[in-house]
Design brief:
- The protein is an alpha/beta fold.
- The protein has two domains: 1-80, 3-Layer(aba) Sandwich (Rossmann fold); 110-192, P-loop containing nucleotide triphosphate hydrolases (Rossmann fold).
- 41% of the residues lie in helices and 21% in strands.
- It has a four-stranded parallel sheet, sandwiched between helices. Strands 5-6-7-8 form a four-stranded mixed sheet, covered by helices on one side.
- Helix 6 links the parallel strand 6 and strand 7 (164-168).
- The longest helix has 14 residues, at 121-134.
Length: 192
């Protein structure tokens, strides 16, 4: 079983993420406080994966990641940020990426963007902006369960040649699933 430390100050997001990860077999320790996360690591707790919010109060995700590396953590570290305001100010997303690069010249290794399929052509614009500003190199497409049948996914793939890692096909916790191009094509064609 994969042991995972989740440090996220947004309670709803933290609870939902912990629930999804636990359902997928992870042993999750969740905290709202980066200082607590750093204390667990420096106190000798071992986790296979660290999932850290970049914008936590007290101790940011980068500070926790730095402490983990100095304590000998060799596992994966996932730093995330909610780019909620990024459509109005995409430079904020680029700032997060540049901050990561200061702490690890090879970072970020992967930058995923979540795209709402119901936004249609606006999604093309969003991907273009964030690919240029933040170096997006993969997608998660949500809301493919309703009237949005994912034509925008085809348009984005054709224009930007980005891999799609996951799709959201509903509102429930288990409705985020790995993307399968052949299953998606069958669903679009109505042959599945």
């Amino acid at each position: 079983m994969t042991s995972l430390l989740l440090a996220e100050d947004d309670q709803d997001l933290r609870d939902l993420t912990a629930m999804v990860l636990a359902r997928h077999g992870c042993d999750v320790t969740a905290t709202a406080d980066g200082g607590v996360a750093r204390g667990l690591i420096m106190g000798g707790a071992h986790f296979d994966v660290l999932v850290l919010d970049l914008d936590m109060p007290v101790c940011t995700g980068i500070e926790v990641a730095r402490a983990a590396r100095s304590a000998g953590h060799a596992g994966r570290i996932i730093l995330w940020t909610g780019w909620d305001v990024s459509v109005e100010d995409p430079d904020l997303a680029g700032l997060d990426v540049r901050v990561l690069g200061k702490h690890d010249p090879e970072a970020p290794h992967t930058v995923l963007q979540t795209v709402d399929a119901t936004t249609g052509q606006n999604a093309l614009n969003q991907v273009e902006i964030f690919r240029n500003v933040a170096g997006v190199n993969g997608l998660v497409m949500t809301k493919l369960d309703g009237t949005a049948r994912g034509g925008i996914l085809v348009a984005i793939a054709a224009k930007h040649k980005l891999p799609v890692y996951f799709i959201g096909v509903g509102e429930q916790v288990d409705d985020l699933e790995p993307f399968s191009a052949s299953d998606f094509a069958k669903a679009i064609a109505g042959t599945s």
